[in-house]
Design goal:
Glucose Oxidase, domain 1; 8 helices; seven-stranded mixed barrel; two-stranded antiparallel ribbon
Length: 294
């Protein structure tokens, strides 16, 4: 399998991201905070034990915005809310902390499953992990988006990228780099283009995205895994029909929105990894996104 060299790293990330829910009286085994005996000072004990990240530490690019009260959601969606449930020393003398969180599926750095805009599409938990991994293709549209905040990436923009870097590889994530995220996130007014909330804000949304024609080209003429963008939607802000979502989801492909750190991602050569929360029946989910740089 072509992604086998990275499976060990993926397992480590999945393990690190996992959590086990327990009641307040259940002891929690604390994570090791000191290096194992024999580990040189300043060396990561996990890396020293496993060796999985040898040679990769400086090549792992985190492309995820952490979730907090500033996370950007669609103006009429339920925003992220974190409520402490327990935090402190228990009556038995050990530390215990746990939180409650709630939010809409689609907000912050998140993935779209085909069901989001395709009636019989797959749910987020039905997409196998290997399908979330693919070569990263970054198409830099910052200049065009700076001139026109509602710019739509065209088929010619894609072909111009290919003329310079070669044909889009099979299984690729095609990423539109607008510059909106790296410049403004998490300033919701500057990202969304309006300070309004609720349904009244929708007609005033303004940010660039893919065009319907570019989405159709990618699913019909190229063999992609999905498309991604550094704005809140793969459809532009003023869209009323959401054609890009309909094309991508209808073709059983994947979407990724509000990704971070595109200024550090090269135009080609990186491998993108998306680890969405596996919500049974979910139309989308928060995701941890990272790339392995060439």
């Amino acid at each position: 399998m072509k992604y086998l060299p990275f499976i060990g790293l993926l397992i480590v990330v999945l393990a690190a991201a996992g959590c086990v829910t327990k009641n307040q009286n259940t002891p929690v085994t604390p994570a090791r905070t000191t290096a194992p005996s024999g580990t040189p000072a300043g060396e990561d004990p996990v890396a020293a034990r496993s060796g999985y990240t040898d040679g990769l530490t400086d090549r792992i690019l985190d492309m995820t915005y952490a979730y907090d009260e500033n996370t950007i959601y669609w103006p009429n969606a339920v925003p992220f809310n974190l409520t402490p449930e327990s935090r402190g020393i228990t009556e038995r003398g050990y530390w215990y902390a746990a939180n409650f969180y709630a939010a809409s599926e689609h907000g912050g750095t998140h993935a779209d499953a085909p069901l989001h805009f395709a009636e019989n599409g797959r749910t987020i938990d039905q997409v196998p992990l290997e399908e979330w991994i693919g070569p990263a293709v970054k198409i830099d549209m910052r200049e065009q988006c700076a001139r026109d905040r509602d710019y739509l990436m065209s088929v010619d923009d894609i072909k111009n990228w290919e003329n310079k870097y070669g044909r889009i590889p099979a299984g690729a994530w095609v990423i539109m780099y607008t510059g909106i995220g790296t410049q403004y996130y998490p300033d919701s007014v500057r990202v969304l283009g309006t300070d309004k909330k609720g349904l009244s804000a929708l007609p005033e949304l303004s940010f660039p995205a893919f065009s319907k024609e570019s989405a159709e080209f990618l699913v019909k003429e190229r063999n992609i895994t999905g498309i991604a963008i550094d704005t809140p939607s793969i459809d532009y802000g003023r869209s009323q029909d959401f054609f890009v979502h309909r094309v991508i989801c209808g073709a059983n492909k994947l979407g990724l929105e509000n990704i971070a750190s595109l200024d550090k991602l090269p135009e080609k050569g990186a491998m993108l990894y998306v680890i969405p929360m596996s919500i049974k029946g979910g139309t989308g989910a928060p995701a941890r996104v990272f790339a392995i740089l060439p």
